[in-house]
Amino acid sequence: MTLGEQVLKVRSKNAGPFWVTIDVFCGSAEVYAQMTRRIETEQVARLFDTPLQLVKRFDIADLHVIKFSIPRPVVQGSRWDRDMHGAQWACLLEELPLDESPLCA
Amino acid sequence: MPTRVLVPSGVLGLGFDRGALARGVAMRPDIIAIDGGSTDSGPFSLGAGQSKYARAATKSEWRDLMQARATAGVPLIIGTAGTCGADATVDWMYDITCELAAELGQRVSVARLYSSQPADRVAKALQDGQISPLTPAPAIDAAAIAAMTNIVALAGAEQVQAALNTGADIIIAGRTTDTATIAALPLMRGDHAGAAWHGAKIAECGALCSTNPTSGVIVVDFDASGFTVEAMHEAALCTPHSVSAHMLYENTDPFILYEPGGHLDVTDARYRALDARRVRVEGSAWVPGRYTVKLEGARVAGYQTTIIAVLRSHHYVSNAKAWVEKLTYYLNGAIATRMGLAAEHYTLEFRLIGVDSALGGQENRSGDPVEVGVLGIVTARTQEEAAEIGKLINPFVLHYPLTEDEELPTFAFPYSPATTDRGALYEFALNHVMTLDDPMAAFRLVVTEVGA
């Protein structure tokens, strides 16, 4: 199972030219509770090749959302940038395989 | 004093529902406020000092808003006019406004708030220790500042209030924070400061905070204890979830928002449905701090020529990465021997569309695509140099064989000439704040009467 198969939506977008922010909409309190335990910040840092200490994480229970913000490795629109709006970055997190422990453990 | 702000959409040029706008005007707002830009589309707009939106689209929507203003009899304000909010795009918006005033038979007072920063002012501020980097910030010195094509400072509520105080009918503001044009009037009238900034942040993308994002128009009521938000399209509902979730959008931190002179903290904000359409928000806090304005700047980082070829032959599709590595190595050699260019003079990069062009080194999937697009990007010191490299590599991008013992392949070029000169490549070059003793010290106001 991938993360994307278990949550409502994963989206990413620039937050200014120097950051990208990724929102995981879990859709329910139950899935949110599972995901806050099962998504590790270290995995996200590895996925986006960012030093762990630069990854900001917000677990927002009211919205059933887990949010990550990371500094862009390449500044928006600079020579080596491949995704001007950073919106495709979400795919990496969406496709992250989660371990096989059942959802209602 | 309660203040009603009508926000027609998230940005001028993207469209709004006219019926919803009429309903908003009928609610007798105290001001009509719309955003004109952002850095969202990249550094070109600021670098070149041009709007990203078509003049025709901008004029058509601004016509509707100028008529709505005349009907409502209240000020109309646009922030970050012309996408980047440089002086050139403020003047571009001013020209459109003058044309429309004449066409509509309106006589209006127009205030222009200019946000562009002369390089010597920024260089002096740097020297005086008045400029601090945010994280992450490009390195700057006086020479780097002088080389920027445009620098703007983001105006806050104070500068917008100075413009409102001129009594102008229409305010065309250069770069402002996304929220300042909406928060300025409620703050002036003594409404709750935390609510003014929070409501402005919720409203700055128009109906994006509702269940029907493309309908555009919303109305926010500010008062002494909070704010209430309602979408004007009949099918658009503001719910506690749709409104609170908007704090996530394009924000690194969903609870804190920095503005000139302090920050908004929504940690303790409470969102409550008044009915099926309206949401009431209370508990947001404004925390005063040092008076700084954020700076944005862009510089030319080179000039580009691009080329696209499509690989359809399965032999090449399945070996696309190996082929493009070999081709790049060969071409760098050819550029060195034929043009005498060293590695630091230019870059040549091929991106394989269908393989990993969006994510590059972070791509962790592979597939068996039917075809692969090969996007070659040349960046050099001048356009002539980039174009010359483009012409030099052109026949090899068309014919380069994977192995020496095979017949010369010919790939698909979609057009002739195969190369496209893209002009300047701009880069964002500032992520800094500048301290000001007087909020107006870095901004200019010009008021004129225009129209029939």
Overview of this protein structure:
Chain A has helices at 3-6, 29-38, 41-47, 90-94; strands at 9-14, 19-25, 56-60, 65-71. Chain A is α+β, with helices and mostly antiparallel strands and 105 residues long. Chain A has one domain (3-94). In chain A, β3 and β4 (65-71) form a beta hairpin. The longest helix of chain A is centred in the first third of the chain and has 10 residues, at 29-38. The two termini of chain A are 15 Å apart. The model of chain A has no long low-confidence stretch (mean pLDDT 93). Chain B has 2 domains: 3-115 and 154-291 and 436-451, no CATH class; 300-429, 2-Layer Sandwich (Alpha-Beta Plaits), CATH 3.30.70.600. Chain B has 13 helices and 20 strands. Chain B has a 10-stranded mixed β-sheet with strand order 12-13-9-8-1-2-3-7-4-20, sandwiched between helices. In chain B, strands 5, 6, 15, 16, 17, 18 and 19 form a 7-stranded antiparallel β-sheet that branches. The longest helix of chain B is centred in the last third of the chain and has 20 residues, at 320-339. Classes of the chains: A alpha+beta (105), B alpha+beta (452).
Please sum up the structure shown:
The complex is a heterodimer of chains A (105) and B (452). With 105 residues, chain A is an alpha+beta fold. Chain A has helices at residues 3-6, 29-38, 41-47, 90-94; strands at residues 9-14, 19-25, 56-60, 65-71.
Principal-axes geometry of chain A comes out as elongated
* Rg over CA atoms of chain A: 14 Å
Spatial strand sequence of the major β-sheet of chain B: 12-13-9-8-1-2-3-7-4-20
Mind telling me the C-alpha Rg of chain B? 26 Å
User: If interface size is counted as residues with C-beta under 8 Å from the partner's C-beta, which chains form the largest one?
Assistant: A-B, 36 and 41 residues
Shape of chain B: elongated
Enumerate the spans of chain A where pLDDT stays under 50 for 5 or more consecutive residues: none
Number of helices of chain B: 13
Derived from helix and strand composition plus strand pairing, the structural class of chain A reads alpha+beta
Distance between the termini of chain A: 15 Å
Strand content of chain A: 15-25%
Mean pLDDT of chain B: 97
Q: Could you name the ranges of chain B where pLDDT drops below 50 across 5 or more consecutive residues?
A: none
In percent, how helical is the residue content of chain B?
25-40%
Portion of residues in beta strands of chain B equals 25-35%
N-to-C series of helices and strands of chain A:
HEEHHEEH
Assembly form of the protein: heterodimer
What is the percent of helical residues of chain A? 10-25%
> On the 0-100 scale, what is the average pLDDT of chain A?
93
Task: Characterize the main sheet of chain B.
Answer: 10 strands, mixed
Continuous helix count of chain A: 4
